[in-house]
Design brief:
six-stranded antiparallel beta sheet; 214 residues; 4 helices; 8 strands
């Protein structure tokens, strides 16, 4: 009888352990799935804005510039972007301020493959600020050859550009496939490519959901 009771207790404990592990795995899987869905939703809304110049007509949360597009898009979809303002921030562009915050809290990276809805920072796109972060866009997709499709607010309003960090100085392949779009006119007919101005990637989605919960 004692043997039967011991076996029954052991089986109960084992079942509880299995159930506990299964619950943890499911929760992690659901969290990963939800993040993927939300990232796709952010990118979908960014794609719907392509071709639009005046974002303020859509919603006053937007500004008609690169950082106003990115932060406005996240905010209009319900994500809180709370930034720290260091003493030197009075001299920062909003793009640079976001860059500094993501770096401070560990959400900035420069290697690897970016995720959809991550942000891309560029430096030196404004001649008067050659070494400072001055432009930002959103990762739309990454192609099989590692060419990154970016949605940004530029001189034509919301548009797509391409960037390939494996070939930073190549505009097109011999077959005519664009690897890097031009991002800045340098003068005398010389243009600089997107990858030549790359400053880093930032996980704005996790910055918002992990650090800035409502």
């Amino acid at each position: 009888m004692k043997t039967i009771i011991v076996l029954a207790v052991s089986l109960t404990v084992l079942l509880l352990l299995i159930t506990s592990c299964a619950t943890t795995t499911t929760t992690h899987r659901e969290r990963w799935y939800n993040e993927e869905v939300e990232r796709l939703n952010i990118v979908k809304h960014a794609e719907e804005l392509i071709g639009i110049r005046d974002l303020k007509k859509i919603d006053s949360v937007y500004r008609n510039d690169c950082s106003g597009f990115v932060i406005g898009l996240y905010r209009i979809l319900g994500y809180k972007i709370k930034l720290d303002y260091p003493v030197a921030s009075r001299r920062f562009t909003l793009s640079q301020l976001l860059f500094v915050n993501l770096r401070k809290y560990g959400y900035l990276y420069t290697t690897g493959v970016p995720k959809k809805a991550d942000v891309v920072f560029f430096k030196g796109t404004v001649p008067s600020m050659p070494n400072r972060v001055s432009h930002i866009g959103i990762v739309d997709d990454v192609l099989s050859d590692r060419t990154i499709i970016i949605i940004h607010y530029g001189s034509r309003g919301i548009a797509e550009i391409k960037m390939n960090l494996l070939h930073p100085h190549i505009h097109k392949t011999k077959s005519g496939r664009v690897l890097n779009d031009f991002i800045l006119k340098k003068g005398a007919g010389r243009y600089l490519l997107a990858a030549e101005h790359f400053a880093g990637f930032g996980d704005l989605y996790r910055f918002s959901t992990e650090r800035n919960r409502y």
